[in-house]
Write a structure and sequence with these properties.
The protein is built from 15 helices and twelve strands. By secondary structure, it is α/β, with parallel strands linked by helices. It has two domains: 142 residues, Alpha-Beta Complex (Aspartate Aminotransferase, domain 1), CATH 3.90.1150.10; 245 residues, 3-Layer(aba) Sandwich (Aspartate Aminotransferase, domain 2), CATH 3.40.640.10. Helix 1 runs antiparallel to helix 9.
């Protein structure tokens, strides 16, 4: 029986009912500007403060270290550009990885045009940066290390705690160097603790954890200087100008509260769904390769390359069967190039073009998994029949 199954939760998530309920009054009767000093403004300010506490708690930060933004992309831009502009006298060298989200990678590429030097660290076949590579890349003029907490396409978790310790050791020796991590995909899926990581800056986004699009946050460790990128207001402790979207921020806060309270249970449930799905692929489909480390990864993501097909073709075929998946980052959709993340694992163009990301979320059920395991082998087989390479392979 045909059913709709959404397995693209790494691109975005549906808004939780409790989140909608929390935010709705701030669209209507509680409409004040949080910068106004009258009752309506202070009512909004109180809601903003409460949300700031909720967001801070999910990453074990102080509320005054949270800067609200329009999303993860702005948070990454503010972190990288803001830090460099405020501290450029200390160096112009950045270290990042070959599998960062485009909101980090393209910022670094733009900075290269402006005179900065960038080292893009390899991740090898398992999709994980080696700490010795980070250490060896640090130079006299290194000012910033930006390594994501967990990858958005393959889910691999990076050694961010080790990187944080490394940065602290260099600082103890008198070097001016800072550490930023893009934790947009990790928050709400695994434990993320800024004190354990030891980062100076950390990016978050609401729409990855069942809250609306258009709101995110940047954690800025106390004492870290940033040059603000949004100029024209004194909001967010002079770090980000612009009237705060109180309804969206309230929603973000509520989503963080729910995610924190249900973290262990949610992670276990998602892992069970993912593992059953991968078991079914192994039992029913041939000629495939999983992408990234099998153990050190998010519980919500399964990325698989299927030989003898184009991932875009499989995506469309599954969509016709009611199943929503992705060939990579939603921010890169429309690109004709193979995923740079899969290529960074050492995979060839065939495997990179045949890669599909299945990302599980709170609304998925075991029945969803069984339905996908029913339609996926047929879809792959139909596409492979159209491949002259596959036809020639099976004829041997």
């Amino acid at each position: 029986m045909f059913r709709r199954v959404y397995l693209d939760n790494s691109a975005t998530t549906p808004i939780d009912g409790e989140v909608v309920e929390a935010m709705m009054p701030y669209f209507t009767e509680k409409f004040g500007n949080a910068s106004s000093i009258h009752f309506f403004g202070q009512e909004a300010r109180s809601a903003l403060d409460r949300a700031r506490h909720q967001v801070a708690e999910i990453i074990n930060a102080r509320p005054n270290e949270i800067v609200f933004t329009s999303g993860g992309t702005e948070a990454n831009n503010l972190a990288i550009r803001g830090l460099l502009e405020a501290n450029e006298k200390y160096g112009k060298h950045i270290i990042t990885s070959a599998i960062e989200h485009s909101a980090v990678r393209e910022v670094c590429q733009d900075l290269e045009k402006r005179g900065y030097a960038v080292t893009y660290l390899p991740v090898y076949t398992d999709g994980i940066v080696k700490i010795e590579d980070v250490r060896n890349a640090i130079r006299a003029d290194t000012i910033l290390i930006s390594i994501m907490t967990a990858n958005n396409e393959i889910g691999t978790i990076q050694p961010v705690e080790e990187i944080g310790k490394l940065v602290r050791r260099f600082r103890e020796d008198g070097k001016k160097i800072w550490f930023h991590t893009d934790a947009v995909q990790a928050v709400g899926k695994i434990k993320v603790d800024v004190e354990e990581i030891g980062c100076d800056l950390l990016s978050l986004s609401a729409h990855k954890i069942y809250a609306p699009k258009g709101v995110g946050a940047l954690y800025v460790r106390r004492g870290v200087r940033l040059h603000k990128q949004n100029i024209g207001g004194h909001q967010e402790r002079e770090r980000r100008g612009g009237t705060e979207s109180v309804p969206h921020i309230v929603a973000f806060g509520k989503a963080c509260e729910l995610a924190k309270n249900n973290l262990a249970e949610t992670a276990a449930r998602l892992k069970n769904l993912r593992d059953r799905f991968e078991q079914g692929i192994g039992e029913n489909i041939s000629d495939f390769e999983p992408n990234g480390n099998r153990e050190n990864r998010l519980p919500s993501i399964s990325n698989v390359s299927f030989r003898f097909i184009e991932g875009e073709g499989l995506l469309i075929n599954l969509d016709l069967q009611g199943v929503a998946v992705s060939t990579g980052s939603a921010c890169s959709s429309g690109s004709l190039e193979p995923s740079p993340v899969i290529r960074a694992l050492g995979k060839n163009d065939e495997l990179a073009r045949g890669a599909i990301r299945f990302s599980f979320g709170a609304n998925n059920t075991p029945e969803d998994v069984e339905y996908v395991l029913e339609v996926l082998p047929r879809a792959i087989e139909n596409l492979r029949r159209l491949s002259p390479i596959y036809t020639k392979q099976t004829a041997k």
